[in-house]
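Long-time lurker, first post. I've been practising inverse folding by hand and with some scripts of my own, and I keep getting stuck on stretches where the structure tokens seem ambiguous. Below is the full token string for one chain I'm working on. Before anyone asks, I'm not after the true native sequence, just a reasonable design that respects the backbone. If someone could post their per-position residues I'd love to compare against what I wrote down in my notebook.
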């Protein structure tokens, strides 16, 4: 059974968009996170313009990361994130890594490692993607990624990926 934790957990949520005014979608996504039951947004990174990973034939992405305290279980929190995506017109069909109006990923949930059919935390490939590591480093430079190591070390391995700070949330 997936019950609510007795004490709030520190979690990190990645946000990304490259369609239909990405800046608006990210700001609206943060506003929606602020409305989640038993969840308090503590801090959000700046917005970063990044090159697409995988399918290069699409617009650049705008990305950010928010640190939240939540009383939601990981599965429930992920369901809320999917609802917010759908409210922003996100359709999860077609190839992975394609264009999207809003993508919300549960990157970390405390120090837990979760591997279920529906959810993997830490988020898969988080440790090799500059579009997540740069904004995460901005708000939590000394973070240790469970099973992957120090954020600073992981970031040093992603210097070949284009990331440009463009705005604050």
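-- Answer (accepted) --
I ran through it position by position. Result:
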């Amino acid at each position: 059974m997936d019950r609510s934790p007795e004490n709030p957990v520190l979690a990190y949520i990645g946000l990304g968009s490259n369609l239909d005014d990405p800046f608006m979608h990210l700001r609206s996504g943060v506003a929606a996170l602020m409305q989640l039951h038993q969840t308090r947004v503590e801090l959000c990174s700046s917005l970063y313009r990044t090159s697409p990973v995988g399918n290069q034939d699409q617009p650049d992405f705008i990305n950010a990361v928010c640190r939240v305290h939540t009383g939601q279980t990981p599965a429930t929190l992920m369901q809320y994130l999917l609802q917010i995506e759908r409210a922003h017109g996100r359709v999860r069909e077609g190839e992975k890594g394609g264009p999207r109006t809003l993508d919300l990923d549960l990157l970390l949930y405390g120090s837990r490692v979760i591997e279920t059919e529906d959810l993997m935390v830490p988020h898969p490939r988080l440790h090799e993607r500059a579009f997540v590591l740069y904004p995460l480093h901005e708000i939590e430079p000394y973070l240790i990624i469970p099973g992957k190591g120090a954020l600073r070390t992981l970031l040093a391995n992603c210097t070949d990926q284009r990331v440009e700070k463009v705005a604050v949330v």
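A couple of notes from the structure itself: The radius of gyration is 15 Å. The chain has a mean pLDDT of 89. Happy to go over any region you disagree with.
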